[in-house]
Amino acid sequence: MRRSFLKASLATLIVASGVVGASLAADAATRGGKMIYARYADSLFLDPVLNDANVDIWVMNNIYDTLLTPTADGVGVQPGLATKWETSDGGKTFTLTLREGVKFSDGTPLTAADVKWSLDRARDPKAGAWNSSLASIDSIEAKEPGTVVLKLKNPDPTLVAALATFNSAIMPQKLFEATPGATPEDKAKAFAEKPVGTGPFMLTSWKRGVSMTLKRNPNYWKAGEDGKPLPYLDELEFQIIPDDSTRLLKLKAGEIDGAEFIPYARVKELQSDANLRMELWPSTRVRYLTMFAGPTFKDGKPNPMANVKVRQAMNYAVNKDAVIAITTLGLGKPMRSFMSSTTPLFVGQDLYKYDPAKAKALLAEAGLANGFEVSIYSLSGNSDDQNDLQAVQQMWSQVGIKLKIEPVDNPTRTARYREENFQMRTAAWTNDISDPSQITSYFAYWPNIHSLHSDFKDPRIDELFEKSQRETDPKARAEQYKEIQQRYNEAAPIVYLYETPYPVAFRKNAKGFVQIPLGNNLFEAAYVEK
Amino acid sequence: MNKTGYIAARLLQIVPTFILIGLVVFVLTRLLPGDPVSAMLGDRATDEAVNRLRAQMGFDRSIWTQFLLFLERAVTGDFGSSIAYRVPVTRLIAERLPVTLTLTGLATIFALLMAVPLALVAALNANRWPDYVIRVVFQVGLSSPIFYVGLVLLTVLAAWLRIFPVGGFGETMLDHLWHLFLPAITLALSFAAVIMRNLRASLMEVLEAEFVEFARAKGLPRQIVLMRHVLRNALITTVTLVGLHIGALLGGAVITESVFAVPGVGRLMVDSIFARDYPVIQALTLVLAVIVSVVFLVTDLIQMTLDPRVTR
């Protein structure tokens, strides 16, 4: 089951990134030199445990390693700092064998004690926003040399993926503890200025909001295709260029080698530029509209969207293909579950095929034959939000739903969302972990954040989810996820829109970059041909 | 009152101004919906995580307690750490301020170099063809949106002709000036248009004044009449205008900064507002207020030199 799924998604990956795969296989990598990659926003805090944002998560793997790592297709895991892992004791003991001879970038050897300390730090319930991913761990034992034993409170099918996720990256205990600072938080701040990890690069300078320079880690453990240690590059520089047009102009002028977040409207143009290579990496990103589905809004007014028929009508009234054509210029594809098709255990359905007549009928059944008015928070200045909502607004007006668009800035939108003081809002999601549990706990499992603060609650989904979190039989777990997805999609507490790839572009001679569906930017095998 | 006394009085006025600015900014930032914690943790955080961080950062205390703490630290020059970047605010500002000061300085020099000679030509040829040409060109400069002018300059001079770099700030001093050339020209175009129009109008007024007539009648050479009497007098209102405009450029060159990827304080301010990074917003506002006050003081001193009546 799992294997055939893996094969299928590998096939999609190869098809989707056809050009990339072909060019990679053909040439031998160049060693040395420097690559400049332009990002739309800078990182904020390079601490695996205490960071909060994709701008950190997506680049941290260039400095730190995890015990296991996600596969390039994002649905499985492969060896990282650990070469072997096995469960025993009915799934309650998890034993990892560490890779031999691994050194941190400062030359000190990686020990089992470093691993125990790092994981203990990551699972501390008082530290950071991500500790719950390791909540099943009861205690950790370091057996030098090279063995780490995790004792679990209960069998945990997500643990393998959790150990391949950024927050369980391994840091050097002694060096961290010797870092000046009164509190652990202060130490973390100071350590993150000059982080030391086992990853392919070392951070050597960082001008906040401007640029970041990473130098080759001479002690990196992974070997390239030529049998010598990676990375190929001597230096990697991230430049922060928030303006889309400027980022592209710099790329065209050859001042930089690559750039992320190419606007959809420019993809065709770059595809036809002989000096450039447009890459569209399969992602776990989904775009949807969130709604409040509880019986009454914060202001006490009754909520029509508490009725499942209304929510289904809203979905039937959206022509996803048209929205995809308008906003992504055809680069997206319709969502077929609340999770992306690149998520493990995804089960796709044809969701809410455009049918305005059915939408009208459903509204009439719900006693809203004359429609209703609903307001939505969008991100001001965000063109995707603008395009999506103008299309939806127009489509909904045909069935009598009046959409009032209220552009606000991000902290405002988040604050209203968290207070559950909203009717609808725009949203996007990418997974951080190669397991469906994260997205499900946020979208569908009420106790976490009330199902995206919608207040949608299905006791059966909650029960299935809790079961699946301890389910050691992969087949049974897949069945649980199938039912969760079907139930959720039927209840439709979101308006389904589309999935999009990560659009990045490179100069023709800059190769070997990989972005996995979780978003992680891998530069270890990147190189620039002379 | 003599000059020194005047400067001292002006400097003293600055102190209450700052406390007032500090208070207004402090309160306003806190009136914005959302706080740094919700900006930082994003959509996914649980209430528990949010409350923990809020308490850690002291946002659970009353706004007055927070303000007093801020004042107490600010007096000693401690503006705290950026909430988003986790580094001292002073360091962030110290990295960005030289960029903005250089950019503003260059833009002002370019603007004056363009505006003053052309205003003279226009005024001396009032309502004849050189005047029309100059006015039309500047009208276009003034009415084109800055991001558009910037993009056109970038596309033509940087991306196509490769005469200038597309963006960034460079490494050495010469490199900085090289990188800042296009953004400075972009800012200077609309700036120059304003100065030119103003200066042309006052030049024409002065040219018709009786004392100019008198100077000419005395048989003074044309050059001396123009420079010493006409331009000097006409510049008095222009100097004020330039001062005001510099003040606006210091914190308000955001569009130019982002089109040219110039890491100045404008971008830092906007990013900080979106991140609700209170310490950066507060410190940056105060620093900019100091600089603007100094610019205004200098403007006034120049005016005093041009027109001794100011001190009376």
From TrEMBL, chain A:
What domain of life? Bacteria
Q: Does the keyword Transmembrane apply?
A: no
From the Swiss-Prot or TrEMBL record, give the protein name.
Answer: ABC transporter substrate-binding protein
Q: Where in the cell is it found?
A: Periplasm
One Pfam family per UniProt: SBP_bac_5
- Where is the signal peptide, in residue numbers? 1-28
According to the entry, every stretch annotated as the Solute-binding protein family domain falls at: 77-446
Family, according to the entry, reads as follows: Belongs to the bacterial solute-binding protein 5 family.
Q: What InterPro entries does the database record attribute to this sequence?
A: Peptide/Ni-bd (IPR030678), SBP_5 (IPR039424), SBP_5_CS (IPR023765), SBP_5_dom (IPR000914)
Q: Does the keyword Transport apply?
A: yes
**Species name for this entry?**
Alsobacter ponti
Any idea which UniProt keywords this protein has? Answer: Signal, Transport
TrEMBL record, chain B:
Q: Which residues cross the membrane?
A: 12-32, 101-124, 136-164, 176-195, 234-260, 280-302
The source's domain of life comes to Bacteria
Q: Which SUPFAM superfamilies match?
A: MetI-like (SSF161098)
Q: Where is the ABC transmembrane type-1 domain?
A: 97-299
Q: Give its localization.
A: Cell membrane
Entry keyword set: Cell membrane, Membrane, Transmembrane, Transmembrane helix, Transport
Q: Does the keyword Secreted apply?
A: no
The cross-references to Gene3D superfamilies, in alphabetical order and at most eight, read: MetI-like
Which Pfam families does the entry mention? Answer: BPD_transp_1, BPD_transp_1_N
> Topology with regard to the membrane?
Multi-pass membrane protein
Give a yes or no for keyword Cytoplasm in this entry.
no
Member of which family? Belongs to the binding-protein-dependent transport system permease family.
Name the UniProt record assigns to this protein = ABC transporter permease
